[in-house]
């Protein structure tokens, strides 16, 4: 799986959870998951995390992986997923 | 009166604090409070976070004569009706110093505690929870949240009833994932752990992996979840067999869909037990261990509590007849307001009204059927007053009219806003505005524009039509 493919799948997951109303027209690695991006609240972020675990068959470590920085944008979340896939 | 209480041992991000360590931290800060707040004010406020330092500072405040108003760390939630009296001290941990500017903006007086090591050891053990009352913000039914003034002994009698009904033994471990700044999070977390002399695992936000790890440790007896948390725990990927759930898993803050109950039970062996309560009345009903498995029920009244259904609570309720829920309770709040300025409680001969509709079965178990007002519970478990959200959205310069309604979601409602604008809707601008003035829990997930709000012949907004418009698949308007 290459980087672009992971980005596309994470965007699709975030868009499904945010819904069309909150999904920006232009989305990319820099799109924030919360304010000024997908506008996800903390509950929806948990949904994204659970969806990513199921999609990529990874298990996040709550302390090490799911830092505030990791959940800032599509790109930062993809970085964590790539790291988990490489383990 | 409450018996002598000790701070609960705490667990946070893998580190443990013993009851003695928590007590020492609180005692140091109590000594500082005694020196700093002179004379003791009638009211102090604190943003209570699910962290050991914040809990210790809060406990230090409870050992004094001042009434404590419990707030969240989000200044957008600090508006109440009536407002918090000006110049009320807002006591902050050193880590919360960033909230000082917001406190001043809100007319409060920020008082930042010194570093934990800087204070002298104070009187220890402290007389915890000897303060007369705590104040929590209730969602209210109109406008802004209301301050519910609650006598401390009543709150602990309610926590004691929960311990008894759910069989929570002395020294039990409690998983505290609900915000302690909410009445229910406080009661089912800090108050319960303090009452049973137990250990409190603190989580700043729900994290299914951490909760599952706590389950697997078998050190915890009680876990109170929202329906959405139960849903996520019941369906999240697992690496291996499911760990055993704590003996008492309670579902609160909203309707528990039967499918969620079943998936949780299938994974963990037992489904969450329903409970019912309110900021004003604490615990009202609870499903007990061994009760019939009926996910739609929120259980029978707690000991000392009576529930009646209908327009006149002085009449006995008829089984199977639906109507407004009333209750009498030994631990109901004293009233809305602040020390010395309490509004009288609304009641009929000791019966307190709720805004919930319900029905009692032959065994006396309550099923909730909706509300008599327009408030609704969100997926995150917050009771949202649409009038409050609408009022905030009207503050946007282009919004001329707005209806805020609940939209269907799997384990609660999401928030929808149908807006009428002057000059066209810029969704991003409206979301930015909402983010400035509303806590995240109250920000609309779905925003759409209409040329006019649908209205009934009476002129009232047709809320069902608004919901239909917001839930219909439509061309995307957000950007």
Structural commentary:
The complex is a heterodimer of chains A (87) and B (479). Chain A is mainly α. Helices cover 51% and strands 0% of the residues of chain A. Chain A contains 3 helices and no strands. Chain B contains 11 helices and 26 strands. Chain B has a 9-stranded mixed β-sheet with strand order 2-1-10-9-11-12-13-14-15. A 6-stranded mixed β-sheet of chain B has the order 3-4-7-8-18-19. In chain B, α8 links the parallel β12 (248-251) and β13 (273-278). In chain B, α1 crosses α2 (52-62). Chain B is globular and about 70 Å long. At the A-B interface, α2 of A face α6, α7, α10 and β26 of B.
Q: Main traits of this protein?
A:
heterodimer, A: 87 residues, mainly alpha, 3 helices, 0% strand, B: 479 residues, alpha/beta, nine-stranded mixed sheet, six-stranded mixed sheet, 11 helices, 26 strands
Radius of gyration of chain A: 12 Å
Report the largest inter-chain contact.
Answer: A-B, 26 and 33 residues
Tell me the overall shape of chain A. globular
The shape of chain B is globular
Low-pLDDT residue spans of chain A: none
Oligomer: heterodimer
Overall pLDDT of chain B: 91
For the secondary structure, the number of strands of chain A is: 0
Q: What is the helix content of chain A? A: 40-55%
Question: Roughly how many Å is the radius of gyration of chain B?
Answer: 22 Å
Distance between the termini of chain B: 57 Å
- In terms of structural class, how would the helical and strand content of chain A be classed? mainly alpha
Beta-strand residue percentage of chain A: under 5%
Number of helices of chain B: 11
Order of helices and strands of chain A: HHH
């Amino acid at each position: 799986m290459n980087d672009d493919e992971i980005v596309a799948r994470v965007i699709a997951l975030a868009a499904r959870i945010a819904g069309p109303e909150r999904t920006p027209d232009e989305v990319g690695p820099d799109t924030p998951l919360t304010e000024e991006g997908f506008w996800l609240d903390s509950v929806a972020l948990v949904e994204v995390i659970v969806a990513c675990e199921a999609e990529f068959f990874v298990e996040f470590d709550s302390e090490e992986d799911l830092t505030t920085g990791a959940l800032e944008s599509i790109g930062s979340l993809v970085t964590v997923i790539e790291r988990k896939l490489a383990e | 009166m409450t018996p002598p209480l000790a701070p609960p041992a705490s667990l946070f991000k893998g580190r443990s604090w013993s009851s003695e360590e928590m007590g020492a931290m609180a005692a140091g800060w109590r000594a500082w409070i005694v020196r700093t707040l002179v004379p003791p004010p009638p009211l102090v406020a604190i943003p209570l976070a699910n962290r050991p330092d914040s809990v210790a500072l809060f406990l230090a405040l409870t050992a004094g004569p001042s009434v404590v108003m419990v707030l969240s760390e989000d200044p957008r939630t600090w508006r109440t009706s009536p407002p918090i009296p000006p110049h009320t001290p807002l006591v902050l941990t050193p880590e919360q110093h960033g909230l000082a500017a917001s406190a001043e903006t809100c007319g409060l007086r920020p008082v930042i505690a010194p570093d934990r090591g800087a204070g002298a050891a104070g009187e220890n053990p402290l007389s915890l929870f000897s303060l007369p009352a705590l104040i929590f913000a209730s969602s209210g039914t109109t406008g802004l949240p209301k301050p519910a003034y609650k006598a401390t002994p009543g709150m602990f009698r309610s926590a004691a009833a929960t311990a008894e009904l759910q069989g929570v033994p002395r020294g039990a471990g409690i998983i505290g994932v609900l915000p302690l700044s909410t009445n229910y999070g406080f009661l089912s977390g800090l108050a319960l752990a303090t009452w049973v002399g137990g250990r409190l695992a603190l989580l700043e936000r729900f994290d299914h992996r951490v909760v599952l790890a706590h389950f697997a440790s078998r050190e915890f007896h009680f876990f109170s979840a929202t329906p959405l948390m139960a849903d996520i725990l019941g369906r999240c990927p697992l690496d291996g067999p499911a760990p055993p759930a704590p003996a008492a898993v309670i579902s609160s803050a909203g309707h528990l869909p039967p499918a969620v109950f079943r998936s949780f039970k299938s994974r963990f062996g037992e489904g969450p037990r329903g409970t019912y309560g309110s900021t004003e009345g604490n615990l009202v009903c609870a499903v007990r261990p061994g009760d019939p498995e009926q996910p739609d029920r929120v259980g029978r009244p707690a000991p000392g509590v009576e529930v009646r259904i209908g327009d006149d609570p002085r009449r006995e309720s008829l089984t199977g007849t639906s109507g407004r829920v009333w209750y009498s309770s030994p631990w109901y709040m004293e009233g809305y307001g602040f020390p010395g300025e309490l509004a009288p409680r609304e009641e009929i001969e000791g019966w307190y009204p709720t805004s919930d509709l319900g029905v009692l079965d032959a065994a006396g178990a309550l099923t909730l059927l909706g509300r008599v007002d327009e408030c609704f519970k969100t997926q995150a478990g917050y009771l949202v007053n649409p009038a409050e959200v609408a009022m905030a959205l009207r503050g946007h310069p282009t919004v001329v009219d707005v209806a805020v309604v609940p939209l269907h979601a799997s384990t609660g409602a999401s928030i929808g806003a149908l807006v009428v604008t002057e000059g066209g809707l810029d969704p991003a601008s409206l979301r930015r505005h909402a983010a400035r003035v509303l806590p995240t829990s109250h920000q609309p997930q779905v925003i759409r524009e209409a040329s006019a709000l649908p209205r009934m012949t009476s002129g009232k907004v047709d809320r069902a039509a608004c919901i239909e418009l917001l839930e219909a698949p439509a061309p995307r308007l957000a950007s």
